[in-house]
Amino acid sequence: MGLKIRLARAGAKKRPYYHIVIADSRSPRDGRFIERVGSYNPMLPAEHADRIRLQTERLTHWISNGAVATERVAKFLGKAGLVPMPAWNEQPQQSAPKKKAQERAKAAAAAAAA
Q: What is the C-alpha separation between 114 and 109, in angstroms, rounded?
């Protein structure tokens, strides 16, 4: 049984609220879970104390038993110091010019410099 530490959505329409839960990886997002270990309220300001609440002792127990956090929850746990901060890879920019346009820009810059 693969255990995940993930978010389960609660709250009303356009008013999200998430429970941080330990769940079997095969169960649905808002479905059956094993234990609730925290909450996340994205509607609160980032510096508010109740935005992210974690039960650290239960989380360390589940992490030691092999539970794997999802990306968002891993970021929360990294900020809390429970696990190392996950590495975030730079995402490619879709709006960046393509190869030929970059070559033309380089050529134009070289011509302007000369």
A: 9
Question: What would the pLDDT profile of 14-46 be if each residue is shown by its tens digit?
Answer: 999 999 999 998 888 888 889 999 999 999 998
Asked whether 3 and 68 are in contact (CB, 8 A), the reply is: yes
Residue 44 DSSP code:
S
- Angle subtended at Cα 61 by Cα 56 and Cα 65, rounded to the nearest 5 degrees: 145
Q: Quick one: how far is CA 30 from the chain centroid?
A: 17
Contact 39, 19 (CB under 8 A): yes
Cα–Cα distance between 30 and 14 in angstroms, integer?
16
Closest C-alpha to 16, from 36, 42, 51, 55: 42
